[in-house]
User: What shape does this take?
Amino acid sequence: MRASPGLIALVAALTGCGQQDTPAPARVLPPGLEVCAGHASDDRLLGYCLAANAVKLQHLSVDTVCDQVPHHGRECRHNWATARARWSKSTPLDALLEVCRGDSDCAFDVLDTRNPRDLVATVGQCREFVPDHVEDCVGHAVARWADRVTTAEEVATVGATELGFAEMVGFHVATAVVCRDIAGAACPTGGGKARACQARVRQLQGQRGLCPEIPDHVKRERERERGG
Assistant: This one.
């Protein structure tokens, strides 16, 4: 029995008969990133390699790099942003967070890496860019702030500003009040933040061993500020 033309076409489509294999177009890597050519056949490895090495090349945008691996674009942008956050201080924080928009993990890593000094602004950035982990993001930020704060004015500003997360913020303000030897530093007055701060102050005053250690990089920064 003679096969119908439709059946022949179906078999040909399924088996590839009668069709020429079209080779994938050669990938043209951005100038300076030829080191990643060995991963050209694996988008995941290529994306990691491109993002990790792009930090060396200030002229390359995230789109130039990550458009090479569209199926792993989110991962590539995350790698690119966190690498730039660590090694390219000239890349503005706002620009890095925009690269991460829609990816809370990416923005969280960028904020942790950059460790911006303005706690009030950082809490706002946690709310905007890290909605999936906003409480953890704020917790990290306020704990880092308490490690490096040096003036009673900074403590008072944070105490008086409505940041939300009252118990968390009050808890860490107490670290600045008790553990950082800041003359005139005091808990805020009134509200949940004040109650949390006062409770933690009483605990720390009774057990100074609970005071968090100042990180070594903060100690070095303070020494530089003092001209030591």
Q: What stands out?
A: Confidence is low (pLDDT under 50) at residues 1-25. The first helix runs from residue 5 to 15. The chain has two domains: 34-91, 115-219. DSSP finds twelve helices and no strands in the chain.
